[in-house]
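Slide 14.
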Amino acid sequence: MEKNFFFWLMVGCFVAVAVIILWWAWPSLKERFLTSAQTPVPSPPTQPANVSAQAMSTVVALSPAEIRRIAATYQIKVSGTTGTTFGRWVVFLGIAFLALPTISLLIGGFVAGLFSFLGVEESPYFEMLVGAVWFALMGTLLMLSLRNVPKLTGLLTTNYLGGTLHTYGPGLHLLYPTEWHTQDDYIDVRTLLVEKTSRFVVKGGKEGEETAGAVGLTFQWTSQYGPFLPLLALYVRTEEKAIDQGFEEVMENAISEAILSGRTVDEMLDKDTVDSIQKAVNQHLMEDSDQMGNTLEQRFGIKNELNTLGPPKFDEDYEQALSGQAVRRIVTKDAKKIQEALGVDGEKAIDVVMILNKENVKKDIFAFQVDGNTREMAPAVANALRTVGPVAKAVTASRQSKPSRSTRKGGSK
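Slide 15: predicted structure.
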């Protein structure tokens, strides 16, 4: 009776463990057998017409075979998949419920034979011994196979049999018993930021203007990216400064190509021009490839998430020349109003405008000096002149202000 109790206890524990493992494996089994035939093959992403800063990726639609090919061009062998795959479940269940019970029975049989050899007719508690051996081996298998990957982290393992690298994302996973890793193989997968300022030269204003000739300008741009888990091995093999340099080369090539296409300094002041350059940058990031035929994302094992391009900032001498032109236009326009209102010549009218734009001029001024005589202005004329100074000042201030640049601060790895 006691032997039967231990036998059925072992069977019950065996069935309970099997049910728990099958319940855990059910999502993977369902995806493998029930949904794989109905899942459409993802098509490569296309650039939406209204997207300016959003980065389009060249890696999200890669198949496992394409991922293996890309890694192979850099002499790295990867599995092409991530996480607990169906094959890992098959190996684990096969070992747990076929190999381990067989080993347990063999060990039990060996012990029974040893007892028989020693003259003991029947080994005591044979079923309990077999069950204890199975649970001990099962615990060892779980220690070798179970891994909990922290949040915002990826785990890169190496398989002893063949040297294949495999990636696991956050969560609890089953590894092959032959997979190996160290603490250094836990990789931070948070988004990183590249922030640079690049200087270019464009064609200035018309001949004879102060803004004529070459004009220097700078763009501040940023790129945000994160590791792409199936190609995490390529990300780990690359230094961060190499990725930064890769982004810098592509961005500067795209901006330079857009500027050298004949754009003038006036066109660079147009927001639509900056938007068109932004789209050209995204296109270059998707199309530019290295000698192996892989894009920047594929070469470094990353996923480009967002690119931003701030408005151009012109050199200080051009800003001053542009501000001087604006002031002259406003002063000339206001001087004509003075001439029409008071009947003075152009030079005197300009003097009046300059006086009205000084900081110490009061808003209730109703008289000014012309040819040494004080002329009283009618209230209507005075009201018109009150707006001359403030308008010119406001326009001058807006012209002299530097264009704002949109920046995004971020951390680094």
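Speaker note: The longest strand covers residues 214-227.
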